[in-house]
Write a structure and sequence with these properties.
Layout (H helix, E strand, L loop, with lengths): L1 E4 L8 E4 L1 E2 L6 E10 L2 H8 L8 E2 L3 E9 L11 E4 L10 H5 L15 E2 L5 E4 L10 E5 L3 E3 L6 H21 L8 E4 L3 H12 L5 E5 L2 H9 L4 E4 L6 H8 L5 E6 L4 H9 L1 E9 L13 H6 L3 E4 L7 H13 L9 E6 L3 H9 L5 E5 L2
Parallel strand pairs: 5-9, 12-13, 12-15, 13-14, 15-16, 16-17, 18-19
Antiparallel strand pairs: 1-2, 3-8, 4-6, 4-10, 4-19, 6-7, 7-11, 8-9
Bound molecules: zinc ion (2 copies).
The site of one zinc ion has 8 residues, from helix 2.
Amino acid sequence: MNAAVCYEFGKPLSLEEVDLDPPQAGEVKVRVVATAVCHSDLHCISGEIPGRIPGVPGHETSGYVDEIGEGVTLVKPGDPVILSTTPSGCGTCYHCTMGFPHLCDNKPFLLPHHRNKKGELLAPMAGPVGGFAEYTVVSERQCVVIPKDMPMDKAALISCGVLTGYGAVVNRADIKTLDSVLVMGTGGVGLNAIQTAALSGAYPVIAVDILDKKLELAKMFGATHTVNAAKEEDPVKAIQNLTHGRGADFVFVTVGSAAALKQGFTMSAPRGTTILIGLVPVKESISFMAFDFLGGERNLTGCGGGSTRLNLDIPRIIELYNDGLLKLDELISGHYPFEQINEAIESTSKGNVIRNIVNIG
Ligand SMILES: [Zn+2]
Ligand SMILES: [Zn+2]
């Protein structure tokens, strides 16, 4: 079997033959069908987000269960599944009982399973999936069984980008009808925050980006107003003008940059909430004055992976897609065969695609 391996940060992946250790207790071997290229993969491959190398990136993945380890009860061989970096909860710990399974106190611990021909272990990068490989091994709690008629390329998108944007709105924010929403960054995650906010009754839904082409797409996903931050002399003022001088009730920052987070916070309304969704490189820091929080009683928080309740969110996203209320097809910019994985990554890094799908099996 083949996998795409990162040996050196910032260099193309090496598509090569590897071995795979069999699934242990509670683990599942999956035949990968499709893995989308996410910006978190780019951050890890470039070394901006530290990770172990050599490793196998890829985490927006769909496939079929091939083999199950001892004691697995959640899936069976042949099941079509979406793989998630966030496992479902144990169901009994404090946080699961409180309704926050993404914060489960008993997360499964996954060791690497891929090995190169020298026998070196290859760690999964950008989450415990290792999806840029023909087969991978994950915890059964990372798998969600999906309907047999769900197209596997669209299914792959759900596992990270869609779930993150959708979940930030549904699980983390508490949007009430006609609350104003601002989404910074209109990539895969941002577009999903936009379409879910629009579906939740927010108004206005303002999209901020630096590319007009992406802002046009944002309108198709439900943005009522757009601001090009590169062209606007004072983007903060532009947001105030669109919100009658108040700022936005909810600001979702999908751009992985400390400067964007600071600017997003400045664009929030008094008592408003800014939610960081994008991964910010570790070397970037940010400072606030204590008064920033006192004066307008603004909130600043984060949302990891859509604060997901996997077994609730993924079936519901699929229902909304099938009912025509959530767009998935329009998120796909291109399909690439596995041999062209580096082209798919290169094209994503240029910033003008939403999601490239790598067809693996
Ligand atoms: Zn991702
Ligand atoms: Zn738990």
